[in-house]
Amino acid sequence: MNISPLVSIIIPVYNIEKFIAKCLESLVSQTYKNIEIIIVNDGSTDKSPSICRSYAAKDNRIKLINQKNQGLSGARNTGIQHITGDLVLFVDGDDWLDDNCCEVLVKEQKENNSDLIIFPYVREYRDKSYKRKLFTKDVLTFSDYEYKEFYRRLVGPVEEELKNPSEIDIYSTVWGKLYKKDLLENKFVDTKKIGTEDLLFNIMNLINARRVKYTSSTYYHYNKTNDISLTKKFNIQSYERKKQLIAEIENFLIRNDFDKKYQEALKNRKILSIFPFIYMICNSTLNRTEKIKNITYIVEDQFNSKEYEKFAGNIKYISNSWKVFYFLLINKKSKPIFILVETVTKLWRIKNEKGSVFNTLFRKV
Fold it and tell me: Which residue range or ranges hold the Glycosyltransferase 2-like domain (predicted)?
């Protein structure tokens, strides 16, 4: 590894003219200078490309790649094809980094030639910010056992980890991680196939990580002001894509001979992943009859229901605020589930009109 390794930063960009300048400003202002900034303009139709061109004209560390729209996974894959650095960061174009981020991460990485450095994030709302540390220690060098547990936690939670279902994906994102380039052997799978690409990408690529560290000395800033309203038409295909994601992970575990604990973790993920879809249905423009019909389809789907009996033994681990929902779920009580989720979301909306109910109830991260 070089004394000052080159860090490749990949930024997918699609119609984020309000946010991209702040993102790029945080990158060109990094205290660690040996970086390349790979911007992939994924067919933007707003002013994002011109803003990116302006920054590229002023800083020769910026590579601007234009392509027809391929979605987030396609844009990130294009970025990976153009990296020349030894280390890789993913940054979404509406987010930003602390100015010292690359300096801190490279320093930590060089101490033991780490394969992966994990760092925490800040959820940035319009009028407030919430820091989210990922571990109790400020700095953590993973033992072999600790990393195996972390990797298994990526697949899904078990036992006491089930306490707060809202934290199911707290480690899943590709941002908030500095990767050694050699780890990245697998591409992102198209979101049109699996719905969300970060989790599968990490499971497939982090299987070979051996030297892993965590530091809370710098933060990723996750922009929550750009969330798209969740009040919209519900498309059952989003649920079918989630099923495909679970199937892809299951096949990967089988191919690589993972033991039963990983299979149990994935089954728990399958059940915990049902709530976001129930919420989206309740908060959609569907009428009451259609909402209950879609909820019933998901609740009674054999893909899920075959796991209910086993999951019943896990309800004791779940926090009291979630127990009623999962009790109704494993007993296939679709209409009561609809009434419960609709009532709770209405109450939260009254209590917190300026905030997102979904973020409060079931944060992605």
Answer: 8-133
